[in-house]
Amino acid sequence: MKKMGVKWVVLVLTIVFLFTVLLSGCSDKKDNNVTSPQSENTQETEKPTETANEEHNKEEELEHVELIWYMLNTPQTDAESVYEEANKIIKEKINATVDFRTEDYGTMEEKMKMVIASGEKFDICWTSNWLNQYEPNVRRGAYLPLDELIDKYAPKTKETIPETVWDMTRIDGKIYGVPNYQICVGWPGVAINKTLVDQYDLGDISQIKRYEDLEPLLIACKEKTPGIFPLDAVKNHGQYPPELGIEPVPGLPIPLNIDKNNKIINPLGPYDEYRRARLELNRRWIEMGLVMDLMNQKNLNALASAGKVLVMYSQIKPGGEVEKKMQTGYEWVMIPTQEPRLDRTMCISTLQAISVTSENPERAMMLIELVNTDKELYNLLVFGIENKHYKKIGPNRIEPIKDSGYQGIAWAI
User: What's the burial of 292, exposed, middle or buried (CB within 10 Å: 0-12/13-18/19+)?
Assistant: First the structure.
């Protein structure tokens, strides 16, 4: 019995051991079955996530579009080579190519009137308060409101420009043009071709302090230099005392002026005598043949570059004399005729607007942002191609190559 008892104990223990092993094996197998699906599920979850990201990225990838941009610039003989290089940058950055269409000062107004009136499709155009006029075009419904587009597609441009300047562009509370941020202080004056003054001994221009002081110089030019226009245009040149800081109220059906304290100026009030005297002076100069006729004013810049204009209306600004020399090849002297002041007309004197006919307004705003933030692209559009249109003479200084065939207008870009 003892031996049988031992045998039974051994048998029972063996069965228990085997049963335990079997249970352990089943447990392991069960764990594997649990773990494996979890692992497979993780992989399956990752795969759809990656696919979703890929699909999202594809949605984010910009389809290629073509944009049309009407720019202000005198036609340049080698512009196409510059635009070709510019489009390489633009295509890489925002997957677009641009048809740059430049119009001169003399053609911009009529060209854009026809383009807008016909409903022609374009994307961006240069606009201002004095040429291809901003506010009248907004009233005609030619430009898109840009507030949301600026917020979404041009945040850096928005951040760079002070809110005060943005407010100056608003019409009925909305922004319709992105300012080419530059000098916003109005400082009316004149630019005098010093080369011509010295060449023909036309007098001492250092004595000119006011608009009225120009008369002896203009008469001397008329008498000594036939074929040269003494003055480009009478413009406004300040019909009121400069210290009032008077400017027109925008968007009104009738002319109304306010002073720097937002007080309405009555044209028949106490300053009427001053205004009448200024208008009479302008009339006299026109009758004396001292002012360029309207027909030639359309070719003003070409005439100035040919040395055919002595005095031009100009806003005084840093670097203005150098810019004028670059444009014309002549030495110029800038003389202010009024006091400087923050001026709405200066804030809207050069902008980019997006047409209501644009099929890609989002991409158009991306382009405006790119030009305002990409140093290489901006410098390319302004100065052209290095060693072809200009040479570098320092880390941040260049020298234009004469007759290179390209020169952009910085403040219009």
Answer: buried
155 vs 18: CA distance, rounded Å: 74
How many Å apart are CA 146 and CA 177, to the nearest integer? 7
Q: Which amino acid is at 76?
A: Q
**d(C-alpha 267, C-alpha 217), whole Å:** 30
DSSP 266: P
Tokens 């234009």 sit at which residue?
A: 400
Angle between helices 361-373 and 79-94 (to 10 degrees): 110
Contacts of 217 (CB under 8 A, 6+ apart): 192, 197, 202, 203, 205, 208, 230, 310, 311
Contact between 306 and 238 under an 8 Å Cβ cutoff? The reply is no
Q: What is the DSSP letter of 133?
A: B
Q: Do the strands 65-72 and 170-171 form a parallel or antiparallel pair, or are they unpaired?
A: unpaired
- The tokens describing 124, both together, are 């961006």
DSSP 260: T
Phi, psi (rounded to 5 degrees) for 274: -65, -45
Q: Which pTM does this prediction carry?
A: 0.64
Q: Tell me the longest C-alpha to C-alpha distance in the chain.
A: 152
In the three-class reduction of DSSP (H, G, I as helix; E, B as strand; rest coil), residue 36 is classed as: helix
C-alpha–C-alpha distance, residues 116 and 142, integer Å? 6
For residue 196, the SS3 value is: helix
> From its phi and psi, is residue 295 left (phi > 0), alpha (psi between -120 and 50) or beta?
alpha
Q: Are 97 and 133 in contact (CB under 8 A)?
A: no
**Residue with token string 């008369």:** 215
Tens digit of each residue's pLDDT (9 = 90 or more) over 258-298: 776 777 776 656 667 777 788 889 999 999 999 999 899 98
